[in-house]
Design a protein that fits this description.
The complex is a heterodimer of chains A (about 180) and B (about 260). By secondary structure, chain A is an all-alpha fold. Chain A has 4 helices and no strands. Chain A is rod-shaped and about 195 Å long. Classes of the chains: A mainly alpha (about 180), B mainly alpha (about 260).
Chain lengths: ~180, ~260
C-alpha cells in the first residue's frame, strides 16, 4: 500500500482505497432500490412461478404415471379376457364334439334297436304264420290221412274221437322223429 | 489519459488517475461524476431487466423470463443452495439483487462508450461488503447467542487447549476485521486492475497507431489492439467470476452465521 501511495502521490491521483462519501451514499441508495424492487417485489413472483411449475410438472408426471398404470392394467385385463375367451371357445368346441359323438352314438343305438325290433317282429310274424300253417296242415293232414286210410281200409271209422286220437298219436310219432319234420 | 501522457514525446502508461473523474458537465455538482451516473443507470437497468423478466411470470417462460430464470437458477443452484441449504429460497432476494447489480456494474467495464467498471471505485464494493457484514453479525448473534457466536467463532471444539491461544485471535481477526475488507477489496481490485490493463493496451494501440505512427512502432500498436481485444474477452470472464464470487462469499457468510456447525 505504501508503494501504491507513493505512486499515487507521484501521479497526483486520489487514493483509490479511500471511498468517496457521495459514492457510498449513491451505492447504498442504488443497492437499496434494487433490493426492494428486484429482491422484495420480483423475486417472490418468480419463486412462486417456479414452485407452481414444479407442481405442474410433478402433477403431469404423476398423471402420466397413473395413466400408464391404468393402461397396463387394462391391457392385462384384456389379455386375461382374451385367454379366458380362448379357453371358453376350446371348451365349447370340445363339448360340441362330445355332444356330437354322443348324439351319433344314440342315433346308432336307436337305429340298431329299431332294426332289432323289426327283425324280431318279422321273426314273430314268421313264427305265428308257421304255427298257423302247422295247425292248418295238422288238421288237413289228419282229415286227408283219415280219408285216405278209410278209402284204403274200406271202412269208415265211425268213432270220431278214436279217429282223432289215432291221428294225434300218428302225428306225435312223426314229430318225435326229427328228420320227418325238417 | 493524463495531459502529461499527451504532451510528452515518450509513451506513458495510464495510471490510477484514469479512475478520477470530474463532474460530468462543467459547473455541475462535484458528486455527479461518471461512476455515480452509471451506478444509477446500472441500478435502473437491473430493475428494468428484472421487471421485464419477473413482473408477470408465466408457467411456460417466454423471452426475457427465460434469461431471468437462467440467472435466478444459477444463483440458486450455484450460490444459495450449496451454502444455505433449506434457507436458500429465503435469501434469494438479497443474493439475486446482489448478483445482478454487481454483474451489470462489472460489465460496464467492457460496454463501449461506458467502459467503466463501477466496482473499480471502492465505495461500491464497500456498500455491499458492509451490508453483508452487518447481516452476518446480526444473524450470528440472533441464531447462536451473543456468547455462543463468539465462542463458536473463536473456540471451535475439538482442539488441544494451547492451540486456542493462537487460534482465537486469528479467528477473531479473520472473521470480524479481515473478512469484510477482503470481501470488498477482492472485487474492487479485480475491476481496478482489469480496467487498468485494458486502458494500458488501448493506450498502446492508440499511441503507436494514431498519435505517433512510425514504421517501428506500428507493430507494437497492432499488438496493443490485439491484446486489448483478447483482454476484453478475459475481462468479461473475470467480471462474471467476481460477481459470482462476491455473491458466493455473501451466501457463505450468511450460512456460517445461521448454522454454527464449525
Amino acid at each position: 500500500m505504501a508503494i501504491a501511495a507513493t505512486l499515487l502521490a507521484a501521479e497526483g491521483a486520489e487514493n483509490p482505497l479511500i471511498p468517496h462519501t457521495y459514492e457510498l451514499v449513491v451505492g447504498s441508495f442504488a443497492f437499496l432500490v434494487v433490493f426492494l424492487v428486484v429482491g422484495k417485489i420480483l423475486t417472490p413472483r418468480i419463486q412462486k412461478t417456479l414452485a407452481e411449475r414444479t407442481e405442474v410438472i410433478e402433477g403431469g408426471i404423476k398423471k402420466a404415471e397413473d395413466l400408464q398404470v391404468e393402461a397396463q392394467q387394462t391391457l392385462e385385463q384384456y389379455r386375461a379376457q382374451l385367454a379366458e375367451a380362448r379357453q371358453e371357445a376350446a371348451r365349447l368346441r370340445e363339448e360340441a364334439r362330445e355332444q356330437g359323438a354322443q348324439i351319433k352314438a344314440e342315433l346308432r343305438e336307436e337305429a340298431q334297436a329299431e332294426a332289432r325290433r323289426l327283425v324280431e317282429a318279422a321273426h314273430a310274424q314268421i313264427e305265428a304264420d308257421r304255427q298257423q300253417a302247422v295247425a292248418q296242415l295238422r288238421a288237413e293232414i289228419g282229415r286227408l290221412s283219415v280219408e285216405l286210410a278209410g278209402r284204403i281200409v274200406g271202412e269208415s271209422l265211425e268213432d270220431e274221437a278214436r279217429q282223432r286220437r289215432t291221428v294225434d298219436r300218428f302225428l306225435e310219432e312223426i314229430e318225435a322223429r326229427p328228420e320227418a319234420v325238417r | 489519459m493524463t495531459p502529461a501522457t499527451l504532451l510528452a514525446d515518450d509513451f506513458t502508461a495510464p495510471g490510477p488517475s484514469i479512475f478520477d473523474f470530474p463532474p460530468i458537465f462543467a459547473g455541475g455538482p462535484s458528486w455527479l461524476t461518471k461512476p455515480v451516473l452509471f451506478a444509477v443507470v446500472g441500478a435502473v437497468l437491473v430493475i428494468i431487466f428484472a421487471w421485464s423478466a419477473f413482473a408477470k411470470p408465466q408457467l411456460v417462460p417466454r423471452g426475457m423470463q427465460n434469461i431471468g430464470e437462467k440467472g435466478y437458477e444459477f444463483v440458486r443452484d450455484q450460490v444459495a443452495r450449496p451454502f444455505l441449504g433449506k434457507d436458500a429460497e429465503r435469501w434469494m432476494p438479497l443474493l439475486l439483487s446482489l448478483f445482478f447489480l454487481i454483474l451489470l456494474w462489472n460489465f460496464f467495464g467492457v460496454i463501449p462508450l461506458i467502459q467503466m467498471p463501477i466496482a473499480s471505485h471502492i465505495a461500491f464494493p464497500f456498500v455491499f461488503a458492509i451490508t453483508i457484514y452487518v447481516i452476518k453479525i446480526y444473524l450470528g448473534i440472533k441464531h447462536q447467542g451473543f456468547i455462543g457466536y463468539f465462542k463458536n467463532m473463536m473456540f471451535p471444539p475439538g482442539l488441544p487447549k494451547p492451540i486456542y491461544v493462537l487460534l482465537a485471535p486469528i479467528e477473531f481477526m479473520s472473521n470480524l476485521i479481515i473478512a469484510p475488507f477482503t470481501h470488498a477489496v477482492r472485487l474492487f481490485a479485480n475491476m481496478f486492475a482489469g480496467h487498468l490493463i485494458l486502458a494500458f493496451f488501448s493506450a498502446v494501440g492508440f499511441w503507436f497507431l494514431f498519435d505517433k505512427l512510425t514504421p517501428l512502432g506500428a507493430p507494437l500498436g497492432v499488438l496493443g489492439v490485439g491484446m486489448t481485444i483478447a483482454m476484453t474477452g478475459f475481462e468479461m470472464f473475470i467480471q462474471f467470476l467476481q460477481a459470482f464470487l462476491f455473491t458466493l462469499l455473501a451466501a457463505m457468510y450468511i450460512g456460517g452465521s445461521l448454522h454454527s456447525d464449525h
